[in-house]
């Protein structure tokens, strides 16, 4: 009887061991992309991602897509500045602010006239000083003294020469300033092309009269009224 029990126990152990030693091919699958370092077969190369991500693009914040109209508006400030740099006032005309052109050319022409006036008198006084210097040092000079300055000594002429030269240099700086303002104005005006500058704004500033009590009477006092619409 004990022999049969031992035989059945051994038979059960053999059957159970063979069952657990098998591998279920349905549950466990070998990935072909995993390379075995001991295998002689070539490794599988996984292709890289060819999608180009825009700077600042995240899954929660996608990249901003700009259409042709928006790109054209963004190019307007640079184009207006370049046009005004080439031809003063051209950027203002393209921006629809043609009324600014007379002020620009008025400033440029005005500084040019001031430059010419000071340059002319500077050269006249400089020539007079050179003629007097050559006369005092017996240096031959075919030029004659200007009778307009005969009542002025050399010190007064030297002061006048420095005065006109300084004003001439300042007129050049003013002309460059007008030219730079022309470019900056064209750029800023085109930059604010989409801004609402109408009267229907939420923030308003306007003058007003406030009544303040003084000696049992009301005295009107000028002031500034600020309105903020919420």
**Mean pLDDT across residues:** 75
Largest sheet: 2 strands, antiparallel
Content of β-strand: 5-15%
The number of distinct helices, counting runs of at least 4 residues, comes to: 5
Straight-line distance between termini = 102 Å
Briefly note the structural class of the backbone: mainly alpha
What is the approximate shape?
Answer: elongated
State the low-pLDDT regions, or none. Answer: 18-35, 48-54
- Counting DSSP E segments of at least 2 residues, the number of strands comes to 2
Strand order of the largest sheet: 1-2
Rg (C-alpha, Å): 46 Å
Helical percent range? Answer: 40-55%
Following the backbone from N to C, one meets helices and strands in this order, namely HHHHHEE
What does this structure look like?
This protein is mainly α and 230 residues long. The chain is built from five helices and two strands, in the order H-H-H-H-H-E-E. Strands 1-2 form a two-stranded antiparallel ribbon. Residues 18-35 and 48-54 have low confidence and may be disordered.
Index terms:
mainly alpha; 2 strands
Quick summary of this structure?
The protein is mainly alpha-helical and 230 residues long. It is built from five helices and two strands, in the order αααααββ.
Helix and strand arrangement:
Layout lengths: L1 H19 L47 H19 L3 H5 L6 H36 L17 H38 L11 E11 L4 E11 L2
Antiparallel strand pairs: 1-2
Helix pairs in contact: 2-5, 4-5
């Amino acid at each position: 009887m004990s022999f049969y029990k031992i035989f059945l126990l051994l038979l059960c152990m053999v059957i159970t061991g063979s069952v657990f030693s098998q591998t279920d091919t349905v549950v466990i699958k070998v990935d072909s992309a995993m390379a075995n370092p001991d295998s002689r077969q070539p490794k599988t190369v996984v292709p890289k991602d060819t999608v180009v991500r825009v700077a600042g693009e995240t899954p929660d914040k996608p990249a901003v897509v700009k259409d042709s109209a928006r790109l054209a508006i963004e190019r307007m400030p640079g184009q207006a500045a370049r046009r005004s740099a080439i031809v003063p006032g051209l950027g203002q005309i393209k921006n629809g602010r043609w009324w600014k052109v007379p002020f620009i050319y008025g400033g440029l022409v005005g500084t040019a006239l001031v430059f010419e006036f000071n340059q002319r008198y500077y050269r006249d006084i400089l020539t007079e000083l050179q003629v007097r210097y050559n006369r005092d040092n017996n240096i031959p000079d075919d030029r004659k003294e200007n009778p307009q300055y005969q009542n002025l000594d050399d010190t007064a002429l030297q002061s006048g020469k420095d005065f006109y030269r300084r004003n001439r240099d300042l007129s050049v700086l003013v002309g460059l300033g007008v030219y730079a303002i022309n470019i900056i104005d064209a750029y800023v005006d085109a930059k604010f092309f989409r801004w609402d500058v109408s009267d229907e704004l939420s923030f308003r500033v306007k003058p007003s009269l406030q009544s303040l009590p003084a000696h049992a009477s009301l005295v009107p006092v000028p002031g500034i009224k600020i309105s903020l619409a919420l």
